[in-house]
Amino acid sequence: MTRSWVVAIVLVALAGRAGSVAFAGDEPVATSATKKAVRGATNAALGVVTEVPKTVYYDALEDGPLYGLTVGALEGLSWGIARTLTGVYEIVTAPFPIPEGYRPIYQPQYPFEAGKTDVAD
Asked: Which of 33, 38, 59, 102 has CB 3.0 to 4.6 Å from 68, enough for a Cys bridge?
């Protein structure tokens, strides 16, 4: 299973590389597509693993430990599942500039970055 993921990511990166066109002031398409594929793989692999404890932590800071351990755990699980599925979506659509300009769907864009997860603008 792991080998399949590696092969898929390499193929996506190569596909993005083949169609790259650099514009003045813009990042090359291959670089953007590769970043999107890596972001997708990271989110797919670490979504639930990191979102649950991270959300428990932030909810406990904002609303207290009992809230963090109950509501925060459920909220983290839902964000984790959403982030994992979004990661798969980003891997599949890496060669295409969806959303516009390869923007991340969530902020922070990686699950291990500081900050409570939310939908990006």
From this structure: 59
Can you tell me the distance from the alpha carbon of 80 to that of 19, in angstroms, rounded to the nearest whole number? 32
d(CA 61, CA 91): 33
**Which H or E element spans position 48?**
helix 29-63
Task: Tell me the three state secondary structure of residue 91.
Answer: helix
Structure tokens at 40: 């997708």
Question: Is the Cα torsion angle 92, 10, 103, 105 positive or negative in sign?
Answer: positive
Confidence of residue 82 (pLDDT cuts 50, 70, 90): very high
Q: What is d(CA 57, CA 49) in angstroms, rounded to the nearest whole number? A: 14
